[in-house]
Design brief:
about 290 residues; Phosphorylase Kinase, domain 1; Aminoglycoside 3'-phosphotransferase, Chain: A, domain 2; three-stranded antiparallel sheet
């Protein structure tokens, strides 16, 4: 966990004062691109990056819509939110009961419920699989310039393919970042988290997150993936657009690592390895990429 507690604390205290909570005794849970704090009394505070007001509004609205639709999701506190503090959008959530990270089956169970819902009248944008990828490439200063040029070209190539992607399943509300890290397993069952990327788009985008854990990183076994596909009713790896979506996911994972490696030297080897994999400098996949946060 990276801790930049001084600026986060200022935003936390300002937001709590406006929302009527006390920050005394607040504990940092995770300080990364978004900053998560735990308050006494079972309240979780999420401090987003500057410029993410629309995403914060969307997170709260989607969470409330899912609760109303009987889909198990993290619950937003019943206050008017987001709240702006120190130039950052801040949201407040009901703390989950004791839990552990979700499973592949938890992910597919919740995705089936989400994808079956009618599209609501909410301010949801069309899915952009490449959001922030360009910024991440520019921030990836630990990489050689030759590799950054390749990433820019790959980004442009995939964007062009996305504009002409093949037809697939009926578009619906997609989570946008559907993996086990965004599902919590509680005694009552799995709970869906983190709706920052919720949008309208092809459900294959949510499915490919698990597929690449098998084909690209090896974090999901073939047996786990077969069960995942059987439960959902579709094997996205057999769809003609799989290569495009898998490529977009791989690019996101590589540039995420590269962006953070610029300020965290201990992650530079992993970031470079991911780029080397994409550029064909290593053995064939799965590559067993290591998590960096």
């Amino acid at each position: 966990m990276t801790l930049s507690a001084v600026p986060a604390r200022a935003a936390l205290e300002e937001a709590c004062a406006r929302a009527g909570f006390t920050p005394a005794g607040a504990v940092p849970v995770r300080i990364a691109e978004n900053e998560i704090w735990r308050l006494s009394g079972g309240v979780i505070v999420r401090i987003a990056r500057p410029g993410q007001w629309r995403a914060a509004v969307r997170e709260v609205l989607v969470a409330r819509w899912l609760t109303d639709s009987a889909v198990s999701a993290v619950r937003a506190m019943p206050i008017e939110q987001p709240i702006e503090a120190a130039g950052r959008p801040v949201t407040f959530w009901v703390e989950l009961p004791p839990h552990e990270i979700g499973t592949v089956m938890d992910v597919v169970t919740l995705l089936k419920q989400l994808h079956a819902l009618p599209v609501p009248d909410l301010p949801l944008d069309e899915l952009d699989p490449f959001v922030r990828v360009g910024e991440r490439i520019e921030a990836a200063t630990s990489l050689p310039e030759e590799d950054r040029l390749w990433l820019r070209d790959r980004h442009a190539e995939l964007r062009e393919q996305w504009a002409h992607r093949p037809a697939g399943l009926r578009e619906c509300v997609v989570h946008g970042d559907a993996w086990v890290g965004n599902v919590a397993r509680t005694a009552r069952g799995p709970v869906l988290l983190d709706f920052e990327r919720a949008s309208i788009g092809p459900p294959e985008w949510d499915l490919v997150s698990t597929a690449v854990k098998m084909t690209t990183t090896g974090a999901v076994t073939r047996a786990e993936y077969r069960e995942f596909s059987a439960v959902y009713g579709t094997d996205v790896t057999e769809w003609e657009g799989f290569g495009l979506l898998a490529g977009a996911r791989e690019l996101r994972m590589a540039t995420y690592a590269a962006q953070h490696a610029a300020t965290r030297p201990e992650w530079q080897a992993e970031a470079q390895y991911r780029v080397d994999c994409l550029r064909g400098r290593t053995a064939a996949p799965p590559w067993h990429w290591k998590g960096i946060m």
